[in-house]
Amino acid sequence: MTNAQKPFDVFLAHNSLDKLKVREIAQQLKQRGLTPWLDDEQIPPGQLFQDAIQKAIPQVKSAAIFVGLKGLGSWQIMELRTFISSCVKNHIPVIPILLPGVSSLPEGLLFLEHFRWVEFAQEIDDASALNLLEWGITGRKPETTAEHGNKPGRVPEEQHLEEVETILKLSDDLSSDRNVDYTQLRNLLAAGNWKDADYETYLVMLRVVGRELGDWIRPEELLNFPCTDLRTIDSLWVKYSNGRFGFSVQKNIYLKLGGKPDEKYYKEGWDKFGDHVGWRVNQNWIYYSCVIYDIIAPVGHLPWVRLPNQWISFSSLASKLVNCSR
Prior knowledge:
- The chain is an alpha/beta fold.
- It has helices at residues 19-31, 39-42, 49-56, 77-89, 127-138, 161-168, 183-190, 194-209, 219-223, 227-240, 247-256, 267-277, 310-324, and strands spanning 10-13, 36-37, 63-67, 94-98, 118-119, 280-281, 284-285.
- The longest helix has 16 residues, at 194-209.
């Protein structure tokens, strides 16, 4: 879908406590001929907010992040980082908006300061702020726009991927006991490139155990896998998937459904696990070509275990994770 074909000009992400102010701004945008995406106008009762938001991202030309006196509300920091990553992946400009009474970004949201923001200093009908917001949404500067907001920065048109990734990754721990570089894995995950990140996970794990491309990691090597490296790989997956993917996510599901980390085959637990994470469909285990490389895949679907004797290897991995968490 090209930008011209997208039905909505801007996604309005906000705390429900700021709903009235955001509705007023949405009405002002409509009067300027723009079409905002607002949750209570687009999400029918009974639909999950997170699912609706994921579906909305490809339909919008820009995204506005409203920050009011009450903070983000349900938009937790991790969720916001994931949302911004999705916007960047889809070439969607991100526009922070400070509502009346907020003069600077809260400490937990300082990564947003790299985007030029719009500040509604006094009233919601602040024409100067609305002109700036329209400029950010459309990429066209209204003739009456005055200098306003924070110090000069980049206009929130299409953001450069590398810059935004740098912002999102400042706090990542890439520690390794085997001098393995996890930068590429982090970059792929931050960009939401799940397929290449899955393959990169296989590659870095090979490096950790000292094996070459095309080889396999043995169960006994998983049992001796360095905890530092395992935590690094897992934490990156968990962080950038907003808790949906990662070895620890899979381990918790596996143990909850009857699997045990002792390298023995527990058919009932293993089958239930496969059904739960989407590795088994209609009682048949899927092939690699059927792996779903998308954030909407079932929780625990990724990373895909690229190992021989899959259930033995996974049990070994679960055992190592249990030991590393002690």
